[in-house]
Amino acid sequence: MSITNQILNNALKNAKSICINKDSKLIFFSDMHKGDNSYADDFAHNVKIYKYALQHYYTEGFIYFELGDGVELWENKSFEPIYNTYKDIFDLQLKFHKQDRLHLLWGNHDMVFKDKNVVEKMLNKFFADKQSKDKKLLFDVDFKESILLEIENTDKNILLIHGHQADFMNYVFWKFNRFLVRFLWMPLQKTFAFKDPTSPAKNFRNSIKVERKLKKWIFKNNNQMVIAGHTHRPKFPDAGEIPYFNDGSCVHPHSIIGIEIVNLEISLVKWHVKDAKIVKDILEGPKDISLFN
C-alpha cells in the first residue's frame, strides 16, 4: 500500500462524524490564506466579498466548514498580524462557533493547528486572563484533519479533507516546504514575481497529480464521495463520474468559490462583484447527493 493511500485511509478512519439531513444547510470554503495585508496577502483583494458571503450564510442559518489553509502561516511567522488584520472576520466566525455551526480543518499552510499546544499558546497571547470566558472561543474549535458527513437514514457519507493528504511533499515534508516558501520562494516572488513550485495552486502539473491520486483512492474505496480544497481548482463531477469535488479557493481573481449543500443537493457557487453589487452565481448544480455515492 502506498504512503498516500495509508494517509487517506487514516483520514477516513479517524474522521469526526457529523450527521446531516434534508434540513441541513452547509457551506464549504477553503484556501483563504489570510495574511497580514502585505504584498503577499492574496486574500486582501477578496476580503469584502468573503465577508459579505459569510454574513449571508450566518444570517441564513448555514453550518460553515473551512477545509484548511484558512490562514497563511508559511509566509507569516506569527498569527498576531493576521488576527489584527482580519479581526472582524474572526469575530464573525466566532458567532458561528457560539451556535455550534463552525467546523475547521487544517491544511498544509496552517498545519500547525493540528498541535493543540500551538493553539493554546495563541489563545494565551490574546487573552492574558486564563479564566476569561472568551478565551476558549477564538480557537477552541478543535481543528480536525477530516470530517465524515453521515446522511441521516442512509448508508451514504461524504469525506471532507483539505486535499494535501494526496500531496506527499505538502503533507509529510510540509515543514521543509514551509522553509522554502518563507526564505526562498517568497523573496523571489517579491523581487521577480517568481511562482512557488511547491504549491499545486501555482503548479499545474502538481495539481493534476494530486487530483489523480485522490480520484484513484476514491475509486478503490467504493467511490467514496470527497470534498476537498488545496489545488484551488474547482471541481464538480457529472453523475456517474468519480465523486471528487473541489471547492476552489477564496483567492481567485475578484471572486471566491465554494460548495453549498441545501436540501441534500450540492452546488458549486461563485461570489463576485457585478454591477457594483456582490452577487452569488451557481456554477454547477444543484444536484442530488444520491447521484454521487
- Supply the CATH architecture: 4-Layer Sandwich
Q: What class do helices, strands and sheet pairing give?
A: alpha/beta
Strand order of the largest sheet: 4-3-2-9-10-11
Give the proportion of residues in helices.
Answer: 25-40%
What this model shows, in words?
- The protein has helices at 3-13, 47-59, 80-85, 87-98, 116-126, 168-171, 174-192, 204-220; strands at residues 16-20, 25-29, 63-67, 102-105, 146-151, 157-161, 225-228, 244-246, 255-262, 265-274, 277-288.
- The longest helix is centred in the middle third of the chain and has 19 residues, at 174-192.
- It is α/β, with parallel strands linked by helices and 293 residues long.
- Helix 2 (47-59) runs parallel beside helix 4.
- The strands form 2 sheets. It has a 6-stranded mixed beta sheet with strand order 4-3-2-9-10-11.
- It is globular, with a radius of gyration of 18 Å.
- The protein has 8 helices and 11 strands.
- Helices cover 32% and strands 23% of the residues.
- It has one domain (3-291): Metallo-dependent phosphatases (Purple Acid Phosphatase, chain A, domain 2, 4-Layer Sandwich), CATH 3.60.21.
- Strand 2, helix 2 (47-59) and strand 3 (63-67) form a beta-alpha-beta unit.
Give the arrangement of secondary structure elements:
Elements: H1 3-13, E1 16-20, E2 25-29, H2 47-59, E3 63-67, H3 80-85, H4 87-98, E4 102-105, H5 116-126, E5 146-151, E6 157-161, H6 168-171, H7 174-192, H8 204-220, E7 225-228, E8 244-246, E9 255-262, E10 265-274, E11 277-288
Parallel strand pairs: 1-5, 2-3, 3-4, 6-7, 7-8
Antiparallel strand pairs: 2-9, 5-6, 9-10, 10-11
